[in-house]
Design a protein that fits this description.
With 67 residues, the chain is an all-alpha fold. Helices cover 34% and strands 0% of the residues. The protein contains two helices and no strands.
């Protein structure tokens, strides 16, 4: 009976190992970048602090850190 509905052709689609969680995470990252305006893709080296500059977050909450 289901085969005769408009969704019937979908029964003939071969099995696919689709990881929906990965897609959801990628979409959440895209939404996060749109909402915050932060740059979240590209060259990873562009996101790190220079060795000469300490993060204010690290200075405030981890003053004994040697990072």
């Amino acid at each position: 009976m289901f085969k005769n509905t408009i969704f019937g052709p979908y029964l003939n689609i071969p099995k696919c190992n689709f990881q929906g969680q990965i897609t959801k995470c990628l979409l959440l990252l895209e939404e996060f970048t749109i909402v915050t305006g932060l740059k979240c893709k590209g060259n990873v080296a562009n996101f790190s602090y220079p060795k000469s500059t300490l993060s204010r977050l690290l200075q405030r909450y981890f003053p004994d850190s040697t990072a």
